[in-house]
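Hi U.,

Before I forget, here's the chain from the pilot set. I'm dumping it here mostly so it's searchable later in email.
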Amino acid sequence: MKKIAFLLPLLGVLAACEPVAQPEEPVDACGAAGYQGLVGQPRSVLEKMNFPLGTRVIGPEDAVTADFRPDRLNIEYAPNDRIEKVACY
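Structure:
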């Protein structure tokens, strides 16, 4: 009986360590799929377009924060001024 009384609190502690399920973010939370046609285009096409608030246009030498925001649209261009990536992060 003493062994069971000892194990019950231990089981309670172990149950508390189980990871809590986090709600999954939508895969395309920022709408990047709708902008994939920009890949390969010159960076200058971006000047005539409107993007969601918080969108980042990132050059090859630009410093950016490392915080992950799945709802933020990011457009990356290469040294040749061609858009090479459109993604949510």
